[in-house]
Design brief:
The structure holds 2 protein chains of 2 kinds. Helices cover 0% and strands 57% of the residues of chain A. Chain A is an all-beta fold. In chain A, β7 and β8 form a beta hairpin. Chain A is globular. In chain A, the strands form 2 sheets. In chain A, strands 2, 4, 5, 9, 10 and 11 form a 6-stranded mixed β-sheet that branches. In chain B, the strands form 2 sheets. In chain B, strands 2, 4, 5, 6, 9, 10 and 11 form a 7-stranded mixed β-sheet that branches. Classes of the chains: A mainly beta, B mainly beta. At the A-B interface, β4, β5, β9 and β10 of A face β4, β5 and β10 of B.
Chain lengths: 111, 115
Amino acid sequence: TQLLEQSPQFLSIQEGENLTVYCNSSSVFSSLQWYRQEPGEGPVLLVTVVTGGEVKKLKRLTFQFGDARKDSSLHITAAQPGDTGLYLCAGGSGGRRALTFGSGTRLQVQP
Amino acid sequence: DTGVSQDPRHKITKRGQNVTFRCDPISEHNRLYWYRQTLGQGPEFLTYFQNEAQLEKSRLLSDRFSAERPKGSFSTLEIQRTEQGDSAMYLCASSPPDRDNSPLHFGNGTRLTVT
């Protein structure tokens, strides 16, 4: 069974602070996706990384896929209240079409 | 692109009753997924369809759960003899054909409460 562990589970910070969220597994994934989910809504894709060591930037968000494709991180610079939400990583494994989701990191950014 | 639509948004039922949820995927998407999410957790995979064929089903899925996608378009998820542990958000997602690492497009879910 492939498992994805996210840390921290919960993070409450002040506006303007930086933060990093981690997604770790003992399994190798062919791709890693990050989603954000707001209350009462489904998750929405932020980014997909597929190559070991790959770094992608989306405005103030920086995503990295580990060299061995077993882990990933999400770094947010100068967090804003609009960044509040549940951040989910999800791993894909080629032959298995369904994504495996991590347990999520709930981020709260206080104004 | 009208997005993935799920109905109903909320369902309250008594233990032992049967419930059925509906999902309408994005029209050109041939892949459809059902996930379950409990409070504070990530989505847990239930089952996956490609067109009308159910290609994957979680081993965690009780035989009280059944899903169909008869014409390869909309899908239904039925839970028979509901239990309090079935209370959760049931999420449907779809993705386009023939693309590796396709993102999942989620609906806003059906929240089930079993009393």
